Amino acid sequence: MAFWRRDRKGKNPGSGTGGTGGSGRSGGISVNVVDPRRPGPADRPGLLLGDRQLPRITVSSFTDRLTAHARSQHPPGTGQVAVVMQHRSFAEDDGVIFMGFAGRPGIVVRMTPRLRADLYDLGEAIAADGGVLYLDAHEGFLRATLVLPAMTVDLDTGMLLREGNVQEFLAAAYATETVELHVQHTTHDRLLNYTCAAPGIRAVLDEGFDLYTQPPPADLRAALLAVNDRLNPAVRLPLRVTGNADLALACLVDV
How far is it, in rounded angstroms, from Cα 85 to Cα 95? Predict the structure, then answer.
């Protein structure tokens, strides 16, 4: 998974580890390749969006790994075992993680001072104005852009369909037309956790299906940089806050 940041004011907020800035386009760009929790291989059928099946999953999801771990800790025939986690367990510094663990479509963000000094005023702004998610289809990947109020940068992520976390997020968001926002910061313990209505997400995912389900690009970083100059208004999805999201994630594993 990769993400880059586009400064709305045309200033580069700074490169992260492995980042490159100054692409020559308008606005500063940082590119990071993110490997959350070093996912392992997988081989299972793709999930369904409505009546259409996504490509085969070859990169394990958080669900895959936690299920395997639970089964390794109990003898066969134990029955159902509860797995309980928090979203903060999956966060990456200055990273945007899309996940659908326990059937809950969540976007998990943990900022450092490089991206924003702190969370002051951000929670109030999100509660009042919500956010915006763009899901732009390209050949072999989705460009997901999270735009939050009171932020000078947008958070963009290249989503490859071979990844289990991506498919679980898309399947859960498609089924519910909701998205959860879980935002935190490295400088303090405050957690921003919201449930948001995301009407229109099914139509956007249906429209781009034939593009983003193609074979992935050989170089995701280059593919992202090639489309970094604008946001596509046709895939703009307002996220309207409807309440506070549960901080705990729980699922039952059959052992």
Answer: 19
Q: Which among 189, 178, 195 is positioned nearest to 245, based on CA atoms?
A: 195
Please, which residues have CB within 8 angstroms of residue 54's CB and are 6 or more apart in sequence? 46, 47, 48, 161, 167, 170, 171, 213
Kindly write down the DSSP assignment for every residue of 101-142, as one continuous string.
Answer: GGG--EEEEEE-TTT-S-STTHHHHHHHH-EEEEEEEETTEE
For residue 152, the 8-state DSSP code is S
DSSP character string of 196-251? EE-TTHHHHHHHHHHHHTSPPPS-HHHHHHTTTT---GGGEEEEEEEEEPPSEEEE
pTM for the whole structure: 0.85
Distance CA 93, CA 155 (A): 13
Please, what are the averages of pLDDT over each run of 10 residues along the chain (255 residues)? 48 37 34 47 94 96 88 88 88 93 95 93 96 97 96 92 97 98 94 97 98 96 88 97 94 88
Asked whether the beta carbons of 144 and 154 are under 8 A apart, the reply is no
| Cα 21 from chain centroid (whole Å) | 22
